[in-house]
Amino acid sequence: MAGRVSPESLELTEAHRFTNRPVRVPEGLRWDVLALYAGVLDGLKAVGQVDSVGIDSWAVDYGLLNADGALLGNPVHYRDARTEGVAEKVWASVPAAELYAATGLQYAPFNTLYQLVAERLRGAERLLLIPDLLTYWLTGEQGTELTNASTTQLIDPRTRDWSHDVAERVGIDLGLFAPLRQPGDFAGELLPAVLEETGLTGPVPVTAVASHDTASAVAAVPAGTERFAYISTGTWSLAGLELEAPVLTEESRAANFTNELGLDGTVRYLRNIMGLWLLQECVRAWGEPDLGLLLREAAAAPALRSVVDAGDAAFLAPGRMPERIAEACRASGQPVPGTRGEITRCILDSLALAHRRAIEDAQRLADHPVDVVHIVGGGTRNALLCQLTADACGLPVVAGPTEAAALGNVLVQARAHGLVGDRTDMRRLLVRSLPLTRYEPQGGTDRWRAAQERLGAR
Ligand code: LRH
């Protein structure tokens, strides 16, 4: 994505798009990180001369390097099964409650900490999270950007620094990690070989951004008040609040809320919800039918007939998604959706319901009431999901921008280069520059409450 920023204007254009296709090999599910890096180089070639480059990606995953700085293998995908049962072993040495009090991270089997306990580190001298790895290949410089580091479960969200105590007790050597970098820090310059390959003229600085895509997306929520909730929708739905301090209570742990770190000392207090992954996997299983048609069928299907718990880690792994959804409906004594339209409706209703629960719980647990829900990311294109979310939450939804992560990325670079001011300024610029769509709740909150009770939810 190419961004053009001035103090009064913000534009984003797509220069190049490439797929990110996980690959299953006999030993498990892997990322094709060289293909991603090739996509980055092609992207730079397509953009042309730029003043700054910044990289963000999904969280928790990493590459391991040997003493010469060479990658030791394909990074393992967080949906790989290797972390099954690992958390229980970790909790035997650091009880889950202590781990939460120290790191504030919600339980997810794929948190870097559990991956590292499952890892065979043979010959590994350095660990770089995915955006840091790509940045390293571009610049030759190694660092660990803070917002993404906060998803490792090895960071204390109060000090915003490594938790030496947790690392020691679970047997992870923090020396594996490169020094922490803050969003906005200078991260190096494109290497001569990169300049040659992309046709750019140096020096081209690389700027550390909020390299966790969700951190970048939240930075680009066009909020005009502090009383807002956000949902970053895409493969995942990340639903919650922007806070000044973490919430580390036992109640918060039980509700599986996470305290990830955001820009400028903020905390992203949110819950991970399976998101449009549920639909993406069904669409894959159905042989990629037309999405527009599917959504029209879903809109016409009966509302709230069956719902599943879209926060359930049982939906994490790929494969057999229509069957798994049907099984979940059957197991909870609800009608089993039969047609593609009905299954799609079940997914969207379930997502809206999970959004409602997350936003209600977050407000209560953080004692931070809101008047509006901002939806950003790919899901903003799904008008039915946005309307259902407004109805379920009983709050207005403001949808947009779709490319929130890219905009947050670009704005942090622009700020590092002195083009925009603080977070409020960044948000003002977004509101001024982007088309946003508003969805008003259309009543029926009782039906959503009843559906929530059907799932036995809190
Ligand atoms: C979204 C995301 C999310 C993480 C998940 C692994 O892309 O970064 O915030 O929890 O991927």
What does this molecule look like?
By secondary structure, this protein is of the alpha+beta class. 39% of the residues lie in helices and 16% in strands. It has helices at 33-47, 86-93, 96-103, 112-118, 130-139, 146-149, 164-170, 192-198, 213-219, 250-254, 277-285, 291-300, 321-331, 340-366, 383-393, 404-416, 423-433, 445-454; strands at 2-5, 10-13, 23-25, 28-30, 62-65, 126-129, 144-145, 155-156, 161-162, 180-181, 186-189, 205-207, 228-233, 237-243, 258-261, 267-273, 372-377, 397-399, 437-439. The strands form seven sheets. A seven-stranded mixed sheet has the order 15-16-14-13-17-18-19, sandwiched between helices. Strands 1-2 form a two-stranded antiparallel sheet. Strands 3-4 form a two-stranded antiparallel ribbon. Strand 3 (23-25) and strand 4 (28-30) form a beta hairpin. Helix 9 packs across helix 16, helix 12 (291-300) crosses helix 14 and helix 14 (340-366) crosses helix 15 (383-393). The radius of gyration is 21 Å and the shape is globular. 48% of the residues are buried.
